[in-house]
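hey can u check if this looks right to u? its 363 residues, i copy pasted from the old doc so theres a chance i mangled smth
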Amino acid sequence: MPGPLAGIRILEMAGLGPAPFCGMMLADHGAEVIRVEREGGWKLPGDPMLRSRRTIQVDLKQAEGIALVRDLASSCDGLIEGYRPGVMERLGLGPDVLLGDSPSLVYGRMTGWGQDGPLAQAAGHDINYIGLSGALHGIGRDGRPSPPVNYVGDFGGGGMLLAFAMVSALLAVRNGAPGQVIDCAMTEGSALLTALTHGLRAAGQWRDEAGANLIDGGSPWYDAYRTEDGKWIAIGAIEPQFRAILLEKLGVEAGGDETQLRAGFTALFATRTRDQWCALLEGSDACFAPVLSLAEAPKHPHNVARKAFVDVGGVVQPAPAPRYSGTPNAAPVVAKADGDGVLAELGYAPDRIAALRQAGTIG
C-alpha cells in the first residue's frame, strides 16, 4: 500500500472504540493492519473504523488459537489491544510473552484508566474518563457539563494518541531501540487535550467553569446562533480585525457590553436563513461557517473540492487525513476476511489451515 507507513505490519486485537480507531489511523497511512476477531463480536456493517484491514476470526479459548496469534504477532512490527488490564496476560498473550517471542515488537495498550492505579479494573466510558481528567468540566452551559459525543476521550485522547505513540515507538525501533509497551489511558490523553486551558488558567485568563470564557461559548464573538429556518451558524471572530469585518458586513456598529452584543447577534441572525448568511459571510475574514449536519457536511462545496469525504462500500465517511505530497494514502476499502491468506503468509500449509477451520480454531 502507499502511504508513509508502507512496510509496517500491525496486529490488532478486535475491540470497540479507540483501539479500532487507532487501527484505522495506522491503516489509513499505509500500514498493513491485520485484525484478529472473535466469533460473534459486535460490529457495524461497513464500519468506517474497520476499513482497509484484513481480518481473521480466531477462537482464543483454544490453545491452537493462542499459538496462532503468537505466530502472527511475531510476524508484525506492532500490536494494539483495548482490553481491561490483565486480559491479554490471562490469554497467554501478554507483553512479556510476545516481546519474548519478538523483542522488537511495539505493544500498544488502550484503556480508560490506565494499566494500574485505583480505578484500573473499573468499568467506564468516555464520559467517565473525561470527567476525571477535567476536560468535561469545561464543556457545557449554565453550569451543566455537556457530553461531547465520544470525540474527546475515545478518539482524540485515546485512539489518535495511541496511533501517535505507536508511530513514535516504531520509529525508535527503526533507530535501534528495543520494542516496548505503550500504556495509553484516555484519562491522561483527554487531560493532555486541555493543555491550553491549563496555561490560560495559570495566567489568570481562564475561569474554571464552562461557558464563561472566550472560546467556550462565554463570549458573543465565539458562539453558535440559530437562524430563521431553525438551523445554526458558527461565529469565531476573536481578533479585533475580524470583529471589525463581521460588524461591517452585518451593518452593526461597535459598542455596548457583551450581554447587549449577544442579544443583538441573537436577534439579528434569527432574521435570515442559514443559506442567506452563508451568501453574505462565507469565505470572508469574518470567521464564519454554517453548522452542518453529518448528512450535509460531505456535500459542502469546500469538502467536495477537497475530497474530504469518501464512499466506501456504500457508507459515506471521512477520508484519511492529513495529506502527504510524496506518499499519498490509498483510497480506503472495506475490511476483508482473509484468514487463509494471512496464515499462508505465515507458512501454514493448506491442510493445516483446513484442520484449524475444521476444529473451529479459525472462522
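The radius of gyration is 24 Å.
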